[in-house]
């Protein structure tokens, strides 16, 4: 086939407010923006459990588990076949992670007052990572100042 005869490439998918996401990196990118969620777990369309929690990690690993315990969510996108993006009757965005007959629905909890989020809702590892990042940035500035 010559260059003039090469087939036209289709554009990448564009999903706005609803649709099915099968690309694992797209799923990860969407879930990374979520923080505090209401989750509903169902199997065979039967309610299994629900709760509220903080998404602490979204990762892509072939052998690690998705874990939900103690108000913390560690989501491995490899645990799911695809994600369905939709809106509930209350106009809430729903992220449905689906694997066979299992559905994990995540509904973001949006605080109307951002100041309501308190440090007690953030785990020690997250606080430690934030402090380490701030200290490293400060040390970088001090090193840069010493070079001049």
Spell out the blueprint of helices and strands:
Elements: E1 19-21, H1 24-32, E2 36-43, E3 46-59, E4 67-69, E5 72-76, E6 82-87, E7 93-99, E8 102-108, H2 124-147
Parallel strand pairs: 3-5
Antiparallel strand pairs: 1-6, 2-3, 2-8, 4-5, 6-7, 7-8
Name its key features.
148 residues; alpha+beta; 2 domains; 2 helices
What separation lies between the terminal Cα atoms?
60 Å
User: How many structural domains are formed by the residues?
Assistant: 2
Number of helices: 2
Bin the helical content. 10-25%
Element-by-element helix/strand order: EHEEEEEEEH
Query: What Rg do the Cα atoms give?
Result: 20 Å
Identify the overall geometry: extended
- Give the overall average pLDDT: 85
* Main beta sheet strand tally, sense and closure: 8 strands, mixed
Class computed from helices, strands and strand pairing: alpha+beta
Low-confidence stretches: none
Strand content: 35-45%
User: Would you count the extended β strands for me?
Assistant: 8
Main-sheet strand order equals 1-6-7-8-2-3-5-4
């Amino acid at each position: 086939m010559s260059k003039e005869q090469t087939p036209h490439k289709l554009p990448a998918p564009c999903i706005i407010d609803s649709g099915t996401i099968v690309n694992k990196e797209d799923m990860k990118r969407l879930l990374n923006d979520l923080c505090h969620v209401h989750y509903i777990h169902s199997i065979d369309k039967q309610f299994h459990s629900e709760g509220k929690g903080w998404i602490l990690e979204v990762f892509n690993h072939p052998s690690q588990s998705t874990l939900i315990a103690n108000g913390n969510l560690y989501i491995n996108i490899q645990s799911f076949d695809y994600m369905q993006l939709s809106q509930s009757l209350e106009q809430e965005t729903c992220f449905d992670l689906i694997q066979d007959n299992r559905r994990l629905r995540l509904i973001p909890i949006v605080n109307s007052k951002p100041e309501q989020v308190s440090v007690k809702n953030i785990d020690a590892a997250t606080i430690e990572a934030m402090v380490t990042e701030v200290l490293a940035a400060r040390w970088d500035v001090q090193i840069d100042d010493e070079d001049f």
